Amino acid sequence: MIQQINPSEKVTTEVSKLFKVLKINQLLRAANIRKASGVNVQQIFEFIFLLAFL
User: Fold this and answer.
1) Chain Cα centroid distance, residue 36
2) What is the distance between the alpha carbons of residues 47 and 17, in angstroms, rounded to a whole number?
3) Which domain of life is it from (predicted)?
4) Domain limits, the chain
5) 11 with 50: CB under 8 angstroms?
6) In sequence order, what are the residues at sequence separation of 6 or more whose Cβ sits closer than 8 angstroms to the Cβ of residue 49?
7) 3-54 pLDDT, tens digit each
8) How far apart are CA 3 and CA 22, in angstroms?
9) Could you give phi then psi for residue 31, rounded to 5 degrees?
């Protein structure tokens, strides 16, 4: 049986790969963008970035 990938899942996966390749997490840390607790800053940044495509 062939699995069909939801287009929004594919975009999410590709953006995650892009963030890893570009080392966005390290750039955020270098820019001193940090949180004391809660959701990871990279996840928030990635979510906001994804909103433009979804």
Assistant:
1) 19
2) 14
3) Bacteria
4) 7-53
5) yes
6) 15
7) 676 777 888 888 889 999 999 989 999 999 888 888 888 889 999 998 887 7
8) 29
9) -85, 5
